[in-house]
Amino acid sequence: MSLKKPFILINFKTYLEGTGRRAIELSQIAERISSDTGKCIAIAPQFTDISTIFDKCKIPIFAQHIDPIEAGANTGKILPESIKEAGAIGTLINHSENRLKLSDIELAIIRAKSLGLVTVVCASTANISKAIAALNPDMIAIEPPELIGKGTAVSKTNPAIITDTVSLVKEINNSVTILCGAGITNGEDVKSAIDLGSEGILLASGVVKADEQEIILRELALQL
Amino acid sequence: MSLKKPFILINFKTYLEGTGRRAIELSQIAERISSDTGKCIAIAPQFTDISTIFDKCKIPIFAQHIDPIEAGANTGKILPESIKEAGAIGTLINHSENRLKLSDIELAIIRAKSLGLVTVVCASTANISKAIAALNPDMIAIEPPELIGKGTAVSKTNPAIITDTVSLVKEINNSVTILCGAGITNGEDVKSAIDLGSEGILLASGVVKADEQEIILRELALQL
Amino acid sequence: MSLKKPFILINFKTYLEGTGRRAIELSQIAERISSDTGKCIAIAPQFTDISTIFDKCKIPIFAQHIDPIEAGANTGKILPESIKEAGAIGTLINHSENRLKLSDIELAIIRAKSLGLVTVVCASTANISKAIAALNPDMIAIEPPELIGKGTAVSKTNPAIITDTVSLVKEINNSVTILCGAGITNGEDVKSAIDLGSEGILLASGVVKADEQEIILRELALQL
Amino acid sequence: MSLKKPFILINFKTYLEGTGRRAIELSQIAERISSDTGKCIAIAPQFTDISTIFDKCKIPIFAQHIDPIEAGANTGKILPESIKEAGAIGTLINHSENRLKLSDIELAIIRAKSLGLVTVVCASTANISKAIAALNPDMIAIEPPELIGKGTAVSKTNPAIITDTVSLVKEINNSVTILCGAGITNGEDVKSAIDLGSEGILLASGVVKADEQEIILRELALQL
Predict the structure, then answer these.
(1) Per-residue pLDDT reduced to its tens digit, D73-126
(2) Which terminus of chain D has a lower count of CB atoms within 10 Å, N or C?
(3) Neighbours of chain C (3+ CB pairs under 8 A)
(4) Domain contains C61
(5) Is residue D149 a contact partner of residue D133, using CB atoms and an 8 Å limit?
(6) Distance CA C59, CA C42 (A)
């Protein structure tokens, strides 16, 4: 499954509503809405659920993290090859809940690219986005940590951080795609994020923790 | 699948020989030898491979690590529930390649126990084993890091570390099972580890990286 | 300057009220009260202030942390020799704001002891205290993290954690001294901590952030 | 003491030859050579030695690290204010022996700047240097980790990494000063580093571990 821009990327985090059997159900909801609306929806489930979702759903899958390691003696770490073989087409890197050392971000990007994995590197500020752009990822997701999970969309609260990110990143590397995250809960938030120059939406609790996952996700997709 | 003591626990680490399709093949080898010999063989594959192995093999599966977290906003972390739902019956904790803070070892043990997961906590010295025993894990694996992957068995090089561990740990908590790791490559190593008081063997490269995985594992199992 | 039990150990943390010139002033207050009351008061200032306090005050000085390293290429780390040569007689290890891996706690204790430095290892639960006792530190400070800086004394809120710690630790290693921390703000708290079996008090904001540092510290010392 | 470009910055790391009394002696050597030659020599001693060196020597002092924290409850951490009050004019950040998360590099730079401290951020590759330039430090020290302490100068082995760093960084932020580190042991290495576009030299073992610290440092200074 390949990506088509603009797209929505749903991060399942370690919510129980996105674990195991419920991860599969949510992936099937996403697949159905994607099919109905023609919009691209990707997911980032937990490592343990990637292969089962890959077997059961036609939907682009990202890992939530990779470790910047080579195959070898690394017990409990996430080998980039392992998520690829399980069915992922890409990975989040440096999520605010899993920040990496700068040197490890560079290594993780290099490792992922060598395997043909799409890299979505998360950033908390416009300057951090600019710094990451120097490392040539495929995509940068700008997410002010103070807005994550808060239900207040960055595109409303702080639109300048998106437009600044877009302009600073494009200055460094024009081929980087900008995603926008943090606090997105309705279709209007999606629309304004796209209008401000992002080409995708990264969100989590707004869908995963919603009482009506299918209804809210459909609303978001329709505004993409 | 439940454990029967004594047993062999094969840690696949992040070796390519134990990733994806090759993880399944190695699990099937272990299952076959276990069936042939009547000896218990368990495996600790990568997170991404747990559910597929669970579907295809009758063999006790451990995770290589869990994070001491509750369900929630923990992108890229290993939720204990996720490995259980994928099919693991237990988990390694504090492997020398993934050392935890002391307070996190306590939390990880508590979380795993609350889910009925078997805890195998790794230790590098006899005193560390004693310290871990105070936190009431199910099992402690004593592995001097300087011997890991070296092909020289701890049971030969430093038998006192095993007997010291057994006596110190039993003093604190008599119900803890001792596993012995590091450098085990042949049946004689297995036999002497058991003779010294351990009730299981933790090993990795000796099997996973072997040219003839099936031959070596069968030799080890026969000496159990 | 040597320690005399029971004693008060004031952790300056990185409070501005305990940094630089104000660290020296607070140390002089402690020295004066110690001299007036005959009670032992020790301090744990920031690394940068150890040598100046050592020059100007007769008072036992602890570091707030050491890294479990040997002399060598460790830029920005805390070499145990460096705090000793600056004038410290001991060090905190594994404070709740600076938790260490279990294997590093063992190494830090070994390194400190080899230099004759007194080790005060912090613990958050009675079982953690028991675990640490297996590593043979000189002292264990039991500090439930949820009470740190809260102004509610552990000796009042959760006296059982102190008595449990004392009995579990003594079971393992009878020569370990127990300190009691978290939330101590007045003389009565000190008295009850000592009555419960601890031989010292570890505190920080209760003195360092007090409007009247000298008045509160004198009250605490008188109840020791 | 202020900096004058070009300059040599000697990182004392945690070498015993640069700890305590021997840190003062080495600082006095540096001061004397600086005075004799008119060249600027700065030092980065351990935290515990900053204030004593500040009292005894007229020489620009850097810390080896700061934590990206505010004053408060951070036991064992390095408060930027603490190194300033001890006498440092600046700090290393993100040394290869003390790598930081990308978001912490940004915070550390912001905190240091707010106190008027000079920031020297270390980088291992030209692209990492470019990324750091986006965060607006005062200086970037390019040090390929594989050459550190090896006695083979980067300016000889891999001159392109210096010229690439200079051009990539200047593209982003023309006001950033480039230092060159790793493997510098003689005057010729200094000269070639300067010729390649760096405005300073960061070195450690080449001077600190030298049998004749004064002779080698004088040779380096004369080629500056």
Answers:
(1) 999 999 999 999 999 999 999 999 999 999 999 999 999 999 999 999 999 999
(2) N
(3) B, D
(4) yes
(5) no
(6) 6
Residues near B174 by Cβ (< 8 Å), separated by ≥ 6?
A: none
Interatomic CA distance for residues D91 and D101, integer angstroms? 17
**What ipTM goes with this model?**
0.95
Domain count, chain C: 1
Between CA A8 and CA A15, with CA A14 as vertex, the angle to 5 degrees is: 80
Pair of tokens at residue B29:
């080898």
**Chain B closest-CA separation from residue C171 CA (Å):** 9
- Mean residue pLDDT of chain B comes to 94
Helix (H), strand (E), coil (C) string for A158-184: CHHHHHHHHHHHHHHCCCCEEEEECCC
Nearest in space to B148 (alpha carbons), one of A73, C103, C106, A71: A73
C130: CATH: 3.20.20.70
Place of tokens 């007036």: C36
Residue B88 is assigned to a structural domain of this protein: yes
pLDDT at position C149 over 70: no
Distance from CA of B187 to the nearest CA of A (A): 23
Domain-located, residue D48: yes
pLDDT above 90 coverage of chain B, percent: 83
User: Residue B27 is part of which domain span?
Assistant: 7-222
CA distances from C197 to C3, C159, C193, C207 (A): 18, 10, 7, 22
Global pTM reads 0.95
Is chain D touching chain B, with at least 3 CB–CB pairs below 8 Å?
Answer: no
How far is C100 from A180, CA to CA, in rounded Å? 36
